[in-house]
Amino acid sequence: MNAPATSNKENGAVQQLHTDAYDWTNQCVKCGYCLPACPTYESMGVESASPRGRINLVKLAAEGKIDFQKDLSGPIELCLGCRACETACPVGVPYGHILEAAKEAIAPYTPKKMKKLKKLALVHLFPYPERMTLLGNGVMFYQKSGLSKLVRSSKLLKKISPALAHLEQALPPIESPSKRFKPGTVIPAKEETRLRAAFFTGCIMDSMMSRINRLTIELLTLVGCEVVLPANQSCCGALHSHQGEAMQAKALAKRNIQAFMQIDADVIVNNAGGCGASLQEYEQLLADDCEWAGAAMDFSKKSQDISQILHHLGPLPFTEEYRGIVTFQDSCHLRNVQKVQKEPRLLLQSIPGIIYVEMEGYDRCCASGGIYNLLHFEESMKILDGKMNDLNKTMATTIVTVNPGCQMQMNIGIQKDGAANHIKSMHLVEVLAKACGLK
Amino acid sequence: MEQVALDALSQIIPESRMFLDLAERYCYSYDASFGEYLPEVVLQPINVKEVSELVKLANVHKIPVSPRGAGTSLSGGPLPVKGGMVLDLTLLRDKLIIDRENMLAIVSPGVITAAIHKKAEEAGLFYPPDPSSSNVATIGGNLLENSSGPKGLKYGTTKEYVIGLEVVTPTGEIIRTGGKTVKNVTGYDLTRLIVGSEGTLGIVTEAIIRLIPKPQSRKTFVAHFNHFIDSGHAITSILSSGILPSSLELMDQACIRAVESYRPSGLPLRAEAILIIEIDGHPLAIEEEINKCADICRAKGASYVKIAESEDERDTIWSARKLVSPAITQMGPTKISEDATVPRNRIPAMMERLKQIRDKYELNLVVFGHAGDGNLHPNIITDKRNKAEMKKVELAVSEIFEAAIELGGTLSGEHGIGTLKSPYMEMELGINGVNMMKKIKEAWDPNNILNPGKIFPEKGQTKVVLVT
Ligand SMILES: Cc1cc2nc3c(=O)[nH]c(=O)nc-3n(C[C@H](O)[C@H](O)[C@H](O)COP(=O)(O)OP(=O)(O)OC[C@H]3O[C@@H](n4cnc5c(N)ncnc54)[C@H](O)[C@@H]3O)c2cc1C
Ligand code: SF4
Ligand code: SF4
C-alpha cells in the first residue's frame, strides 16, 4: 500500500485563496445571521471568533490587507469546523470550503509544536489501518493490564498534558480483536436479503471502537442487509481536510473510492458523522479531477449514515426495554453537512420503554471538533461546560451521539462533572443494539 | 492615537477586552451595509462605569467613539468613519428582567432582541417590535435605530415601547431618562430623543421597555393580484374599513420570480403582487375580520385568496416572504437595501416611480416591504466589483429618495440615516430643520466625539458614494 502523498503546495493554496475562496467570501452580505449559531462566538464573545468575522478575515487576507500567518491563522485555528454557520446562513455562503482553503493556506505557518502532533496523527497514524489496529490493541493492553489504573492514580498524564489525560479517561473499553469482522468478509443478512451494504469501518472507529462497528454490522443484518467489508479501505481523510492537508485527503479519498467501487453494493454505510460528511464530500473534493470526478460522485451518492438505513429498513426487532431518560447530541457533520436530523431521533423514540427528552442546544457543537479538543484544550472545555449545563437540565441518564469524537467528548464532560455514576455516553448503535438484545 | 491615551485606556479595561491587533480591529470595521473603516482600538466594556470612564477619557484626548451592537446596521451606523475607538457593547448583557406586575422589561443593551421576545412570551407578555434581524441584533442597536418590522403597522416602532433609559452622555456623565411609569410628562422627553439617535447623543447602558399582553390568537391569509394597482386599492380599502391588521406585507413580481426560481413553491409567476395579511386579537373577532379582508381582496380583483387553516399553512404563506432575502442574493453578491417610506395611499405611485427607475438604469431592482405602513424595501442587486454599474446604482438610489420625499414620505422607515443617507437630510428636513438637529448634537457633544460622521452630511457631500 502506498502512503498518501505528503503536501508541499503553499503556492497553490494561496492562489486558491485568491480565486475561489475570495469569490465565496464575497457572497457574504455580513447580515450576521450566522452569529447566534456559532459556539466559538458564544464562548469567546469576539467577532474574530465568529463566522462573519472569519469569512471577512479570509477576504482581507486575499486582498493583502492582513497577513496569513500573523493575522489569519489565529482566528482560523480556533474554528471548530462544526459548520453550524452554514446551516444558518440565508444566502448559502460555503463556509466549509472557505475554511478549508484558509487552513490550507495557513498550514505552512502552523506553530512547530502543533505541527508535530498533527503530523504524527495525520501522516503517520490515521492513514494506516494496521498502525491504528496496533494502537487500539496497545490501548486495550494498557486498559486490561492495570497500567491504566496506575497511570490514573499517579496523575502523571495530567502533568504532561491535561488534554491527553482527559482523553485517556474518555476512551471506551476496547474489545478484543478476536471479535472483529475481518476486512474482505461478507456477512449475510439474518433473513431475506433486501440490500447489499458496503460498510465503511473508519480509522478510529475500527481501532478504538470496534465493538460499535461489530454491533453496526449485526444491526444491519437484522434489517436485511448483506454486509460487505471492502479490504483496502482507509481513513476517510476528514481530519486531513480540516487541518489543511488537502493533498492527503484526496489521496485517501481515491483509495476509498477504489476499494468500494469494486464492490457492487447498493449503499455505502458509515456510523461516524464526521467520516460520513467527508465521504459525502468526495464529490466536491475531486470535482476538478476528470479522472476521478465521476466515480467520486457515484461514491458520495451511495454514502449513507447508519441511522438512515436502519430507519428506512426498520422497524428493528426490539427484544428489550431501554430504561431511563435519553437525550441526543447531534453530530455537527451529520446535522449540518449530511443534513440528517430526524432519523436518529425517530429510531431512539421507537425503542420500547425509552423516555426521550430533547436537550436545549442539541444542535450546538460539543467542541470535540476532530482533534480541536487536543489542540485547543481550554477553549474546548469552556464550550463543553456549557453543553454539560444543558445536559444536566434534561435529567438524562444516557446521552446518545453518532460520532466517536462526540462520544468521547461527552465522556470527558461526564468525568469532569463527576457524573459517571448517573450518566452514560453511548453511540446510537449501542443503544439500539442493546434494545435488540445484542451484546 | 497617542501612546498616553492608549496607556490610559488600558488602566480602565483589562487587556483581554482591549484589542489593538490588526485582525481584531478589522473585525469591527464593517457592518451589514457598505464601507470599511479601520478603528484604532476596539474595547469591550462590561458595565456602565467602564463606559463612562472610557468616554470621559475620549473627551480629554478627543478620540472618536463609535458604539456598536451586533453590527447589522444597513446604513453604516456603527462604522468608525473617523477612526478612534469602537465600543463593542455586546458583552453588556447581564440584565434581562421581566417585571410582570408593571408589564416591563429591564434590559442591558447587549441583550439579543429575540431573547426579550422569548422571555416576555414565557410570562404571557409581548414585545412587538420585530425587525427581521431580531435573532442577531441587540436591543441597544434596535433602540438607537428605532427598528421595527412587519408588526409596525399595528404596534408601532421601538420608540413606542421605551419608557426609561440609563445613558452615558458624550461627556461621560451617567444620566437616567424617563422611568418605570407609562405616563411621564416631566420636562423634555429625552428618552424619545435618544431612541433613534443612532449612537450620536449617548451610549445606552440600560433600558426599561414596556410590554403588552400577548394577543390570544392570530390568522393569516395570502392574496395574489394580476395587476399591481389592484393590490394598492385592496390595501387602502382594508385599512379604511376599520380593521387594523398586525401585518400587511407586499411582494412585487420581480420578488415573486426570484423566490420561485430559488425554491419553487408554487407562487404565481404572472401575478404582479402578492399580499400577506395577518390579524391578531380575540379568536371570534379575528375570524370575522379575516373573512372581511379576504372579501375586500376578492372585490378588488385578487385572482386567488387563501386563508391559512393550520399553523403549517401559515408557515407556508410566510415562507414565501422569508425566502425573499436569500432568493434575491442569488441574483448577485451585492444587495443595496433601501427603506424609503411613503404615506400608504401613495404606494402605487411609488411603485410606478420605482419601475421607471429600474427601466431607466437597467438595474436588477425588486421591491417588497411592509405595505401596511408604507415602508417599502426597494432592493438593487448588483456586484460591487462592477464599478460602472455601481455608479448607476448611486444615481438610482438618489432618485429613489427623491421620489419618496416628493410623494410626502421619508428617507428611512427603519434602517436609519447613518453614513448612507446623510447627504439627503436637507432634502427632507430643509436647512433649518437640519441646523436645529445639529444644535442639539453640539449641545450634547461639544467635542463631537460620539459617533461622528453619521446622520449629518460632511461639507460638500450631496449624494451617496458607494464606490470610489
Ligand atoms: C438581514 C437584515 C435584516 C434587517 N431587518 C430589519 C428590519 O426588519 N427592521 C429594521 O428596523 N432593521 C432591520 N435591519 C437593520 C438592523 O438589524 C437594525 O438597525 C438593528 O437595530 C441594528 O442592531 P445592532 O445590534 O446590529 O446594532 P449596530 O448595527 O451595531 O448599531 C446600530 C446603531 O446603533 C448604535 N448603537 C448600538 N448599540 C448602542 C448603544 N448601546 N448605545 C448607543 N448606540 C448604540 C450604533 O452606533 C449604530 O449607530 C436588518 C438588518 C439585516 C442585516
Ligand atoms: S464552523 Fe462552527 S465554530 Fe467555525 S465559524 Fe462556523 S459555527 Fe463557528
Ligand atoms: S449568515 Fe451568511 S451572509 Fe450572513 S454574515 Fe453569516 S456567512 Fe455572511
TrEMBL record, chain A:
GO terms for molecular function: 4 iron, 4 sulfur cluster binding; glycolate dehydrogenase activity; metal ion binding. Its EC number is 1.1.99.14. InterPro entries: 4Fe4S_Fe-S-bd (IPR017896), 4Fe4S_Fe_S_CS (IPR017900), Cys_rich_dom (IPR004017), Glc_ox_4Fe-4S (IPR012257), Helical_ferredxn (IPR009051). It is an enzyme of class 1 (oxidoreductase). Keywords: 4Fe-4S, Electron transport, Iron, Iron-sulfur, Metal-binding, Repeat, Transport. The keyword Glycosyltransferase does not apply. The keyword Cell membrane does not apply. Its cofactor is [4Fe-4S] cluster. Binds 2 [4Fe-4S] clusters. Residues 18-49, 68-99 form the 4Fe-4S ferredoxin-type domain. It catalyses: glycolate + A = glyoxylate + AH2; (R)-lactate + A = pyruvate + AH2. It comes from the Bacteria. PANTHER family: GLYCOLATE OXIDASE IRON-SULFUR SUBUNIT. Component of a complex that catalyzes the oxidation of glycolate to glyoxylate. This is Glycolate oxidase iron-sulfur subunit. The lineage of its organism: Bacteria, Bacillati, Bacillota, Bacilli, Bacillales.
Automatic annotation (TrEMBL), chain B:
Keywords: FAD, Flavoprotein, Oxidoreductase. Residues 34-214 form the FAD-binding PCMH-type domain. Gene3D superfamilies: 3.30.465.10, 3.30.70.2190, 3.30.70.2740, Uridine Diphospho-n-acetylenolpyruvylglucosamine Reductase, domain 2, Vanillyl-alcohol Oxidase, Chain A, domain 4. It comes from the Bacteria. One of its GO terms (molecular function) is oxidoreductase activity. Its cofactor is FAD. Belongs to the FAD-binding oxidoreductase/transferase type 4 family. This is Glycolate oxidase subunit GlcD.
